[in-house]
Amino acid sequence: MSSSPSILFMGTPAFAATALTGLVTAGFPAIGVITQPDAKSGRGSKIGASEVKCQAEKHNIPVYQPEDKAELTEVVKKIKPELIVVAAYGMIIPQTVLDIPKYGTLNIHGSILPAYRGASPIAEAILAGDKETGITIMKMSLGMDEGDTISNYRLPITREDTTETLTDKMATLGAKAIVESIPKWISGELKETPQDDSKATYCKKLTKEDGHIDWSKPAGQIERMVRAYTPWPTAYTFARDARIKILKSREIPGLRPGMTDTLGVLSFDDGHIYVGTGGGILEILELQPEGKKPMTARDYINGNKQLDGTKLE
């Protein structure tokens, strides 16, 4: 795209890498990529490059990994991009950087703003039971996700969606959104629309502790929690001090034979695992005991019959 402005891309995880690939495939001239420094991850805490860095290297795009905001500013000043595109970069971008590009800085955000400003919008939408989410392309400002919106692309949330599956869908949609929005933004076809701050909602960065199940919550809410916290931090509970990750579950309407609605108590019946909650029954379909591989409810029961009637903590 010879008429496209020179683009500097900033991002880190797979969600961002999909957008970078979309831009490159569409012919946009990415003159550089900025991503977070290589970090420890996975078993053995090996040092690994971000998904964005790996993708950039495949396309022979120069990669920069500044350690702080001051270094970030110096790098961008040297590159002198006409447009910056950001997707889940992982650092608040200072005004000194936002002021550099002629056409501003466009961010690919995983919600329909002003809903779910912050670090975990996809998980939050599932947790809230929303039927729809989407991608917002916004012009970045110094405030957290407070910039004027440029375009919106909507996407339904299914009852089977987890944060993992929905993130994949959103990544593809985000790539489509930025590829379609850039030419219209540069030509002036797309205009800035201020957000209605009175309707803003916020979501925090998730921690491992957020996955601990409170069985006094309704079954439907816990089921959404299981989906929202897949693949991380995962929903979990404790049976006799042993951690159990709940990987797949469903709310059961009404009490059936073999069930107990006693709060937080396990009941086994014909290969099924049920737990009483603060509102209804939750069936656990797939789980992962501490130190073991994921397994079905039936397989878990076969090796843990003594836990029938145990109170989960």
Low-confidence stretches are none
Q: Report the CATH C-level class of the largest domain.
A: Alpha Beta
Mean pLDDT comes to 94
What name goes with the CATH superfamily of the largest domain?
Answer: Formyl transferase, N-terminal domain
What does this 3D model show about the protein?
- The chain has 313 residues and is an alpha/beta fold.
- The chain has two domains: 7-203, Formyl transferase, N-terminal domain (Rossmann fold, 3-Layer(aba) Sandwich), CATH 3.40.50; 208-307, Formyl transferase, C-terminal domain (Methionyl-tRNA Fmet Formyltransferase, Chain A, domain 2, Roll), CATH 3.10.25.
- It is built from eight helices and 17 strands.
- The N and C termini lie far apart (58 Å).
Features:
single chain; 313 residues; alpha/beta; Rossmann fold; Methionyl-tRNA Fmet Formyltransferase, Chain A, domain 2; seven-stranded mixed beta sheet; 8 helices; 27% helix; elongated
Summarize the structure in short.
The protein has 313 residues and is α/β, with parallel strands linked by helices. It has helices spanning 14-25, 51-58, 69-79, 95-98, 121-127, 163-187, 219-228, 297-303, and strands at 7-11, 30-34, 39-41, 46-48, 63-64, 83-87, 105-109, 117-118, 132-139, 149-156, 202-203, 235-239, 242-252, 266-269, 272-276, 281-289, 295-296. It has a seven-stranded mixed beta sheet with strand order 5-2-1-6-7-9-10. Strands 12, 13, 14, 15, 16 and 17 form a six-stranded antiparallel beta sheet that branches. The protein has a two-stranded antiparallel sheet with strand order 3-4.
